[in-house]
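testing teh design pipeline on a random one, pls ignore if ur not involved
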């Protein structure tokens, strides 16, 4: 079997590249073991324009945000179903010094203020006091949203199984990919280029690139009647409303996430759950937060706990490019917690680089990280 691009890994990175290649008329084969608990599948998929304790505007927001929304809208058209939604984020300035820091940023008019902020009464309103603790200083963003990543990946896999070629298998080491006169070959599939997009797994990390693994914990909360439809971000954690609720008003909300840089096991831990629950206790109203630690049988609201390792490179930016030694291999990795926003544009740039010689942006070029 002959294809143009052989992709190992159908997480967010591999799937975005597969779509970009498909739209350019390239023949694609995807190899993925079909695991259920991966960084992409666990991810909440939030696009947040103002992040961190320092309230910094996300890197290249004015360029990457419209590119991401255009990408997800085009996928929705091909799939006949949408997995991305724009949602405002209500951000509480609860940590020491943040209200003053935020005022200084406003006074300097840092970043794309008119692009980022929502100032309407509805976006800035206090959350319902029956569900949330009162919020003092706060702001709201409008260039923010969420991709339901797991549903997006599943629908994309179904699409590519029909329109391209998908193999349920695992690449153990890059050495299993053989060099071939016309590119590379693996298990009877020949391709011009093999792309390794396997996240934090070692087979997807080129020699010389330092990727750290940050384990993230996400809790699933079953709530009935909660009226909040914004993302609420306070005390370093977020609370995400569901895309839909059932006829009785019950929906599955998500809350997270942690950054555990020292763990060696991606599985959920009691400590990870405790960290998220402690933060939620400062976000939710006391009567609601009291139910976080209860068993479901006694009215507890935590119905799920998932975790996985995110791949993070220096500067929390993704990397892309050809292997410096084997030109038939390429990489797209390091999406971290911002891949939903950052990766769609650069996935297309990578495809144009591999198959048309277009230059890669130096800020994401693998060569820049290896030099």
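output:
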């Amino acid at each position: 079997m002959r294809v143009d691009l052989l992709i190992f890994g159908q997480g967010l990175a591999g799937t975005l590249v597969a779509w970009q290649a498909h739209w350019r008329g390239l023949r694609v084969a995807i190899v993925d073991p079909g695991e259920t608990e991966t960084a992409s599948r666990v991810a909440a998929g939030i696009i947040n324009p103002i992040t961190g304790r320092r309230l910094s505007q996300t890197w290249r927001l004015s360029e990457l945000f419209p590119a991401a929304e255009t990408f997800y809208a085009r996928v929705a058209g091909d799939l006949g179903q949408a997995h991305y939604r724009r949602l405002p984020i209500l951000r509480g300035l609860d940590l020491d010094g943040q209200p003053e820091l935020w005022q200084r940023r406003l006074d300097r008019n840092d970043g794309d203020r008119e692009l980022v902020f929502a100032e309407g009464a509805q976006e800035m309103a206090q959350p319902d006091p029956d569900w949330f603790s009162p919020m003092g200083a706060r702001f709201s963003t409008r260039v923010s949203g969420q991709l339901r990543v797991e549903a997006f990946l599943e629908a994309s896999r179904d699409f590519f199984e029909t329109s391209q070629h998908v193999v349920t298998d695992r690449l153990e080491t890059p050495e299993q990919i053989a060099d071939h006169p016309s590119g590379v070959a693996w298990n009877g599939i020949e391709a011009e280029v093999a792309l390794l997009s396997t996240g934090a797994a070692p087979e997807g990390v080129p020699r010389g690139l330092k990727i750290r693994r940050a384990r993230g914990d996400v809790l699933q909360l079953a709530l009935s009647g909660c009226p909040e439809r914004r993302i609420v971000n306070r005390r370093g954690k977020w609370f995400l409303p569901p895309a839909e609720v059932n006829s009785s008003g019950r929906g599955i909300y998500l809350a997270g996430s942690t950054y555990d840089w020292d763990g060696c096991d991606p599985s959920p831990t009691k400590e990870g759950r405790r960290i998220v629950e402690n933060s939620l206790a400062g976000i939710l109203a006391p009567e609601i937060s009291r139910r976080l630690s209860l068993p479901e049988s006694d009215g507890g609201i935590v119905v799920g706990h998932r975790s996985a390792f995110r791949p993070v490179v220096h500067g929390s930016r993704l990397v892309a490019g050809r292997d410096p030694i084997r030109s038939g291999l390429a990489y797209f990795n390091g999406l971290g917690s911002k891949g939903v926003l950052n990766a769609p544009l650069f996935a297309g740039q990578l495809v144009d680089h591999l198959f048309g010689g277009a230059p890669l942006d130096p800020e994401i070029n693998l060569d820049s990280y290896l030099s």
